[in-house]
Amino acid sequence: MRTRFQQGLDELRARLLRMGGLAEQAVDRACQAYIDRDLARCHAVLENESQINVTEREIDELAFDLLAMQQPMATDLRFILAVTKINSDLERVGDQAVNIAERVMDMVELPKAELPVDIARMAAAVSAMVRRALESFIEGKAELAQAVLEMDNVVDRMRDDAFITLVKTMNERPAVTQQALDALLIARNLERVADHATNIAEDVIFWVRGADVRHNVALETPVDQAITDTH
Amino acid sequence: MRTRFQQGLDELRARLLRMGGLAEQAVDRACQAYIDRDLARCHAVLENESQINVTEREIDELAFDLLAMQQPMATDLRFILAVTKINSDLERVGDQAVNIAERVMDMVELPKAELPVDIARMAAAVSAMVRRALESFIEGKAELAQAVLEMDNVVDRMRDDAFITLVKTMNERPAVTQQALDALLIARNLERVADHATNIAEDVIFWVRGADVRHNVALETPVDQAITDTH
Asked: What one-character-per-residue DSSP string does A134-155 give?
């Protein structure tokens, strides 16, 4: 039978996954809005931001309650702290989606311009990073997290390429400077989403390895505490 | 006499202040490097990044140790969790300083261009936000934090103005597109520093008010725990 504390940890994990789902959905919607020049999807991203913010606060509150409920073991403590950090990163992934949606809303008001940048490809790479970073956390696997760090280099290269070609576009076709700048800023927002995925992966590595290194911390727990410890 | 736990909290506060000092210094240096086209200062920012990253990890470790050491009271728990969040934001302020330094390094290779943007003024506003956000945390004053949120609107307006004038520059003087883009991205990086200051201020409000709202949580602490609680 699982204790109330363990049920709380399960709930925390489930909520973080929901938060991850909301953040991923926001990025996917914003990028789809770019591809389809779709204002309705932009508005959906803006409207869902408050849901993401509320979920962030709820997760923090639950983490707080779990820490206040009883003296967690070292592994559980690291898990809870990792959740609060990943939670912040996911909220900021949501912010980036809002930034992208705002850029798309700007672009839709301007004449459509063919731009030498593959936002869809970059978005796919970035979404995969967020998804895998969350997987690495849920499975507690540092090696999965390591793979996310390597993907970050690929996204950085895409961003660099986008910068070079779009600055060239601005120089050669001043009439589409604004559109090219919007696309450039969207590429930058996507790179930042990738950075958040990287932060999540780094936290996973830190906490997983930390938990390994400090495997014997529980032995230092005072005996009276250990006796009442039910998990 | 202060307990070991209380000494730990003091140390945590002191380290976070040091972290704040490092992050602020990095932003100030990067902006001074912009003004003076000073490569040496850019390199100093890049070199200090690892110091910031190490300090971030040390603060997280100390926070972890304090949480593992004993069952903190609700107020202390909120304080410790706020420290870990603010810590992350300060580390990212440092990242933004690195981004600014990289842009400056790009600009220094290009011919100097007069640009219609007052980066020094924006930098001063942003630095003030970071400083006040930290003050609001150290003093635990939600009203100081509230003032930081209001300053964010001013910085957002500066960023919007910079965007409008710099895009106009790109259109009218294609020869300085790259320099104008660098300045635009620096304005954006500064806006992001302001966002981090805002995050810090929001965390202060949330934790301070939360601590108020939950003022009686300690009463729910099991009696045997309360008896051994020395802080």
From this structure: HHHHHHT-HHHHHHHHHHHHHH
